[in-house]
Amino acid sequence: MFIKTPDDTQIMTIERHFLEEQHIYPEATGVLTSLLYDIALAGKVIASQTTRGGLAEILGQSGNTNVQGEQVMKLDELADRMVSRLNDHTGRLAVMASEEQEGIIPISPRYPTGKYVLLYDPLDGSSNIDYNVSIGTIFAIYRRKSEDGPGTLDDCLQKGRDLVASGYLIYGASTMLVYTSGMGVHGFTLDPSVGEFLLTHPNIRMPEKPKYYSVNQGYEKFWSEGVRRFTHYLQGDEPDADGQYRKGLSLRYIGSMVADFHRNLLGGGVFYYPVDNKDPRYTQGKLRITYEGAPLAFITEQAGGSSSNGKQNLLDIQPTSLHQRTPLFIGNRDLVEKAEEFIRLYDR
Ligand code: AFP
Known about the structure:
Elements: H1 14-24, H2 31-50, E1 61-65, E2 71-73, H3 74-87, E3 93-98, E4 105-106, E5 116-124, E6 135-143, H4 153-156, E7 165-171, E8 175-180, E9 185-191, E10 196-201, E11 212-214, H5 225-234, E12 250-251, H6 257-267, E13 269-273, H7 289-302, E14 306-308, E15 328-331, H8 333-346
Parallel strand pairs: 3-5, 11-12, 11-13
Antiparallel strand pairs: 1-2, 3-4, 5-6, 6-7, 7-8, 8-9, 9-10, 13-15, 14-15
Helix pairs in contact: 1-2, 2-3, 5-8
């Protein structure tokens, strides 16, 4: 079910949109609406800092490394703190987890706990910060599984299928918030003059004809045969199992997943980060199922696309650890199915 697209004379603020979605469910209490609004607020604050990057002396690496062994930048820390601090005291959450923190983030006993669980990647693509490239925040909201009291690790380890809502903020030429709560995908653009997100992209659907494929092709020599052949198929140089060639797609790769994903969501295409044998740390690909794969897979599916780890729909994967990595193919359904086909044929 979709909520009505506003006519030209209506200005749909994000708050009004959340409330209209909430009213579709008579049993809704408004907690999810408020939680989404808090995330939008965190996004506004992060955007205000990312756009001031060079000025605020917050560019450059902080010198710490995160749990993935990667360099952490100051903006990552700021974004991480912003999301957790704006959400830790509201009584809406049982527990949180962040890509920047090793364990779960418990809600302090000083505050009440709530029924939702928030997982987030505070600043995805942060290695691009110094180059003024678009970066983003990704969020995933689940219902808690535990009955009450402090939320648990188990509450955070849920399949993408159980997502209540997910989305991302992209800090680019403009700041946008794109989200789904299972009723279509909606995009809002921050109007900096009034400090409000306004609905600019209602009911986003992936175009049926894809334009792009997005992958770090510099790693081609480290890929499996199936992934290599799939890539050549996308370039129009390799037949599929039926002997059919497709028209070649354009390659676009920013190296900032939210930006690559956002472009393909609007323009059509496939983003993938397969397993490669380049880095021994990444035997299951680089990206995390919990903070990147599942939330963007939910959006893709709601926009008419699909996702896979090469064998299985990403939304059906049961994570067993917080920072679990996964190979990932995400975008137009027919292209994701082709990836699975090539992997099935050549990567036994
Ligand atoms: P950083 O957050 O360390 O910049 O990593 C970004 C990311 O997780 C994702 O946003 C990109 O799609 C991917 O890594 C890029 O990885 P490569 O640099 O290996 O292509």
